[in-house]
Structure formats: structure tokens, C-alpha cells
Design brief:
The chain contains 15 helices and 8 strands. With 421 residues, the chain is mainly alpha-helical. The radius of gyration is 20 Å and the shape is globular. The chain binds (2R)-3-hydroxy-2-(alpha-D-mannopyranosyloxy)propanoic acid (2M8).
Length: 421
């Protein structure tokens, strides 16, 4: 019997193109940003040199102003739409030689580089990579800070968990434009009921087209069709800034900027605590802050934001509550990406209810960070049981544990390696 770890490594090897690891063999054939960083975290425990190569490959797509894009379209003979032609990055000042998208994704790279360094120290690698990561974080603060709190805005749902219902109201205000002018390749490889609708896609494309007119650099966030303070993105950035400060310390570089940014982000996230809901509030930059009923409400946990009492309440009343995100008799697989009590909960559709391995991994790290070690062990155990039973899928049905979306999904395999470690 091949061990779970060996099966996880096989998935990463199968999806490895030589220069990057595809997130999923058919649905996602190019290099996505946070997928690559999470893949590098898995490689830390089995092949750190390959993990370092993954980070280097992603950074080949960075823009002159520091942005690391959400997709790098390495030259390949594959079908994927919308592909590089939608973004037309070659026409934008400061774009790299490789075609890329013009937006970014949650910045997990600093955390991946720290994990790689802890597993297999390599100071020369840090000296090479740290300036690029620092430039990306600086860009986020300079380009995406709408309110002076230190929190940053995303300008497209593709910059986070795109199909999550927390974005529905902001998206509904956007003119959906013309019918799609391309055939969606995702639909050829995944069930319609598990993917975003065409109406969602039309709005995603409308936002890209608006950003493209401005070469993806707006003169102010006010101009954006969509601008949202996403707690998942901001919690990831908070941890990344702390990890970057740590990396700077390893190479004797100045860590002051990253340390200060992490502290500001933590303070701003702390303000978002909602005592009634035992969770955190977020929202459109122009709208109200609310608890959204999606798993983003729990993400400040990943950044170690809640105090002891808040962390316990967040765990018992939200994360592990059978009515909300936790295991119940009817739906024993947790954590759901939308609360079961929410009217938006959909057990099959992507980011609207199913269980994701990366979400569980972030929450395990958060529980550990907040001193809830036994609870972290419980979630780790349940997650490993799910992959043992259903394989390394993109997401899973919370009642049956059935695999959904793309099979052989790289970050599910990579994070299994980290959870096992
Ligand atoms: C999903 O996003 C792409 C578009 O970027 C898609 O829907 O086709 C999201 O889950 C995103 O977070 C992820 O990075 C990407 C690749 O796994 O797929």
C-alpha cells in the first residue's frame, strides 16, 4: 500500500511541467500565484530545491513595480480560456517578457520561503528572493490601501476565493456586459454545478476589461468597479509581513518596514471583531462591514489576531459549530467555506460551501498560533482523513466527502505533506 505522503508526492510530480507545477492537470494548466507558494510549502519536506525552483519560476512573472501576478502564462501548447489574450499584458508598461494576468493573489510566498528555509537553510536563496518579496508587499500597500488602516483592497474576485457569496452584492452592481466571446475551458473538465455561472464570468471579464483600459494601474481605488477588503487576503499578508521580517533578520537586512506593516495589519484586523457573531467583519470599500457567513470571517485567526477568549469563542461558536462551519451529523466534513446556516450555502459549488484543504491548513496554523493545539490537531486529523478517503481533490462535498472540481489538485497534495509533517 502506497503511503499518503508518497501519493501526494506523485501528484506533484505528475503536475510538474519542469518549470512550474500546474494547480490541476486539466482545469488549471498555467502557473497560479498562491498555488505555487502552497506547492513550495509541500516541497519543503520532500524536495526543498524543487520548492525553491517553484518560487523562482513564479517570480519570473513579476512586474517592474513589484506586483507578482495571479497567473504566469508560461509558453505551452494547452487549451485554457480566458488566457493571455484577455489580459494583453505585453501592452502594459513594466510588464515582464512572459505574458501574465494584471492582478495579484494572496501573498503566501514569504511564508513559503520561510518554510523552505526552516526545512533546508539556504542564505543565498534568501538574498536573491527577499528583495522581490519586499517589493511586492510594498506595492500592495502603495497601490491598494484605500483607508489608511493598513488593510489592502482586492480589485477582482480572482484575487481571492473568487466565487464566494461575500462578493455577490458588489458584483451585482457591475454591468455584466456582452455574452462571453470565448468558450470556457473549465466547463469541459468540471461539472457546471461545481463552477461559477456564466453571469459571474461575464462580470469577472467586465472588471478585467475595465482594468485593462488602465493598464491595471488605477490612479485611485475610487475608479475601481470592484474594491473589497478581503479578510483572507489581509490575514495572509499579515503573516507574510511577519515572515518577511523574520527572513530579513536571517540575512541581516532591515526588517523594520515589514514588522511595522504586520503590526498595523494585526491592529486593523482586531478592530473587525464582531462580539455578537464570534467572527470578523469585512466588506466592499464603499459599503458596510459585515460578518459575511463565509469562511473569510474566521481568517484573522490565521494571523493570530484573536485574544485567548476570542479565539475560544471563534472556535466553539463559529469554526467548529455544527450549524455554521464545523462538523455536524448531516455534514461531518469541515470546515465548510460558507456557514451551513447561510442561505447562500451550496454544498457543491466552488467556494460556496465545499471543504477546501488550503482553508483547513490556514485554520490549523491559526489555531496553533492562538494556543488551541488540541483543536488544531482535531482539524488536522479530520483533513487528513478526508484526503486519505477521497484523494487530492480541489474541494469536497461536506456531507459525503466526495471529491469535487479538479482531481489531482496540487495544493491539496502539497499541504497534506505539510499537515503530515
Ligand atoms: C481558481 O481561480 C481560477 C481563476 O483565476 C478559475 O476559477 O479558473 C481559484 O480557486 C483560485 O484561488 C486558484 O488560485 C485557481 C487555481 O487553483 O483557481
Amino acid at each position: 500500500m502506497v503511503s499518503l505522503a508518497d501519493r501526494a508526492v506523485e501528484v506533484l510530480r505528475r503536475n510538474d511541467t519542469g518549470s512550474f507545477v500546474k494547480p490541476g492537470p486539466l482545469v488549471y494548466p498555467f502557473q497560479w500565484n498562491w498555488d505555487s507558494a502552497l506547492v513550495a510549502i509541500g516541497f519543503a519536506w520532500v524536495d526543498p530545491a524543487r520548492g525553491r525552483a517553484e518560487v523562482r519560476s513564479l517570480l519570473r512573472g513579476r512586474w517592474a513595480d513589484g506586483m507578482v501576478p495571479h497567473i504566469v502564462f508560461h509558453p505551452q501548447d494547452v487549451q485554457y480560456s480566458p488566457g493571455p489574450e484577455l489580459w494583453d499584458s505585453a501592452r502594459c508598461p513594466g510588464a515582464p517578457a512572459l505574458p501574465t494576468s494584471g492582478i495579484t493573489q494572496p501573498p503566501v510566498v514569504a511564508t513559503a520561503v520561510r518554510t523552505l528555509h526552516e526545512a533546508d537553510p539556504d542564505l543565498r536563496f534568501l538574498e536573491e528572493i527577499v528583495p522581490a518579496v519586499d517589493a511586492w508587499h510594498r506595492w500592495l500597500h502603495e497601490e491598494r490601501s484605500p483607508d489608511g488602516t493598513g488593510l489592502v483592497a482586492i480589485l477582482h474576485p480572482w484575487e481571492s476565493a473568487d466565487n464566494a457569496p461575500r462578493f455577490d452584492a458588489a458584483l451585482a452592481r457591475i454591468d455584466s456586459g456582452d455574452p462571453l466571446s470565448f468558450t470556457r475551458t473549465d466547463r469541459q473538465h468540471a461539472e457546471d454545478a461545481e463552477r461559477p455561472t456564466d453571469l459571474d464570468y461575464r462580470r469577472y471579464i467586465a472588471i478585467v476589461e475595465h482594468l485593462r483600459l488602465h493598464h491595471y494601474r488605477l490612479s485611485s481605488i475610487e475608479e475601481a468597479l470592484f474594491a473589497y477588503i478581503d479578510l483572507c487576503f489581509n490575514a495572509v499578508l499579515t503573516v507574510a509581513e511577519s515572515d518577511l521580517a523574520w527572513l530579513c533578520g536571517e540575512i541581516g537586512a532591515d526588517s523594520e518596514r515589514a514588522r511595522t506593516a504586520a503590526a498595523r495589519l494585526r491592529a486593523a484586523l482586531r478592530e473587525r471583531w464582531d462580539e455578537g457573531a464570534a467572527a470578523y467583519r469585512e466588506g466592499d470599500v464603499r459599503g458596510e462591514q459585515t460578518v459575511t457567513g463565509t469562511v473569510a470571517d474566521l481568517f484573522p485567526l490565521y494571523a493570530g489576531v484573536p485574544d485567548e477568549r476570542q479565539a475560544r469563542r471563534l472556535f466553539e461558536e463559529s469554526l467548529w459549530s455544527p450549524e455554521r462551519f464545523g462538523p455536524s451529523k448531516e455534514a461531518p466534513w469541515a470546515v465548510t467555506t460558507v456557514a451551513k446556516s447561510s442561505r447562500d450555502f451550496d454544498a457543491c459549488r466552488y467556494w460556496r460551501g465545499p471543504v477546501w484543504i488550503n482553508v483547513n491548513w490556514f485554520l490549523v496554523r491559526g489555531l496553533e498560533r492562538c494556543g488551541l493545539a488540541a483543536e488544531a490537531d482535531g482539524l488536522r486529523g479530520l483533513t487528513l482523513e478526508l484526503v486519505e478517503r477521497s484523494g487530492f481533490s480541489e474541494y469536497y462535498h461536506p456531507s459525503t466527502g466526495a471529491p469535487l472540481g479538479s482531481g489531482d489538485f496540487s495544493w491539496s497534495a502539497a499541504l497534506t505533506l505539510d499537515l503530515l509533517h
